[in-house]
Every structure is written in structure tokens, then in C-alpha cells.
Amino acid sequence: MSNIPDGLLFSESHEWVSVYDGVATIGVSDFAQAEMGDITYVELPSEGDVLAAGDEFGALESVKASSELYCPVSGTVIEVNEALESSPEIVNSDPYGAWMIKVRLSDESELSSLLSAGAYAEIAR
Question: What is the pLDDT of residues 67-107, one digit of tens each?
């Protein structure tokens, strides 16, 4: 069973979201990183990029697969976790600490379409 912390929101495409003061911090779930295997490369957007909910914002590559990352909310990228460029394996060891991007939300009502930890647990098996 993968680790699914309470207090986070999740997308069906396995991204997690934490919101504080109108900013969404976004990463990939423990389930997603476990399914991918050893992450070898993380591709992320640039600060200032404007994303809509559902837009592709990057990709993960591992020894077994590659997978697109989808933004669960709309907004402007205000920060990118540059540490992942040189140390992508952090996603495997600490998926909830290894955030990918921070987005200033443009429509907080979109958060209601995301899954609670309990609901996400039902699909992350």
C-alpha cells in the first residue's frame, strides 16, 4: 500500500496538491513514483508559464517508463524545484517532499474537483 497523507488533494493522474495562501504546491504521489521505478529525469516548465487545469506541465522518465505530468489546477508557475534537475531520484525517496512546481491559483474553485486522500486511496492500488 502506498503512502497517502491526509491533508493533500490528488488528481486521478496521480499528482498531489497542497494549497497555502492561494499557492498550489504540486508533486507526484508515492503510488506514481513506485509504479515508475527509479526516476532518472524530471522535465518541468519555466517560471511564468501559465497553465490550465489538465495541461501537461512536464514529464518523468525512469528506467522502466516515461510519463507526462498534468497540472491539476489553473494558474501561473511561480517556482520550479530546480533540485530535481540534478537529483531526480529525490522523487523516489521523498515524493511528498520533492514538490515539482508552485502555481499561483487563478481559480480556487477547481480544488473541489480533486480527490481527498481517502478517495485517492480507492484508485491508487
Answer: 999 999 999 999 999 999 999 999 999 999 999 999 999 99
Indicate the SS3 state at residue 43: strand
* Angstrom distances, CA of residue 94 to CA of 32, 101, 109, 115: 12, 15, 29, 21
What is the mean pLDDT of the segment spanning 40-44? 97
Contact predicate 54/75, CB 8 Å: no
93 grid coordinates:
525517496
Number of H helices, E strands in the chain: 4, 9
Prediction pTM value: 0.95
Predicted confidence at residue 64, as pLDDT, reads 86
In angstroms, rounded to a whole number, what is the distance separating the alpha carbons of residues 94 and 97?
5
Q: Which CATH number fits domain 9-107: 1.10.530.10, 3.40.50.1370, 2.40.50.100, 3.40.50.2300?
A: 2.40.50.100
